[in-house]
Write a structure and sequence with these properties.
mainly alpha; two-stranded antiparallel ribbon; 7 helices; 5% strand; elongated
């Protein structure tokens, strides 16, 4: 417990010698939303790195450097407000759509590369596409990819599946 407290104080998330009360529901919700955004950003980074190995500099799009700056060279600021993170989530969705559209006429080995396909898998359950625009989903389903370096790692929700049936049968 002390290690967690020290880490929170070091990051400036809570003041030293102050009283704090945390509601785990709100904390878990914020962590879930942040994790979803981190997953999309990390997968975009992996896709850009994969594409970068297969493309000459002259073949890269006009948005290439902007995307590299956003997703390869920068990290999320965990202290950002909810509105900033929400905007970054929307931006990541729009950038995924733009990348997918740009890839359409490309050779199959680029368009269907391993990391690009992973990006499609991560994008699909996290965004709704309406009239060519990506909108982040409000609630994330269990069982979707949450960790792009290890896509087999899954989120789960307590009380669902077989365990729920046992609990309900008491």
């Amino acid at each position: 417990m002390r290690a967690v407290l020290a880490a929170l104080q070091k990051e400036g998330l809570i003041a030293k010698r102050s009283k704090q009360r945390l509601d785990s529901t709100q904390v878990l919700s914020a962590v879930s939303d942040l994790s979803a955004l981190e997953c999309v950003r990390a997968t975009l980074r992996l896709a850009l790195e994969e594409l970068g190995r297969g493309l000459a500099k002259s073949e890269r799009s006009d948005f290439w450097e902007l995307f590299r700056e956003r997703y390869v060279e920068s990290q999320l600021d965990y202290k950002s407000g909810v509105e900033v993170l929400k905007n970054q989530d929307g931006q990541a969705g729009e950038d995924c759509l733009r990348l997918f559209e740009w890839l359409e006429p490309m050779a199959a080995e680029l368009r269907y590369g391993q990391q690009v396909e992973l990006l499609r898998e991560v994008f699909a359950p996290q965004y709704l596409v309406k009239v060519g625009q990506a909108e982040a989903v409000k609630e994330h389903a269990p069982g979707v990819i949450r960790n792009s370096p290890d896509p087999d790692a899954q989120w789960s929700a307590k009380g669902q599946g077989k365990r729920e049936e046992k609990l309900d049968g008491r």
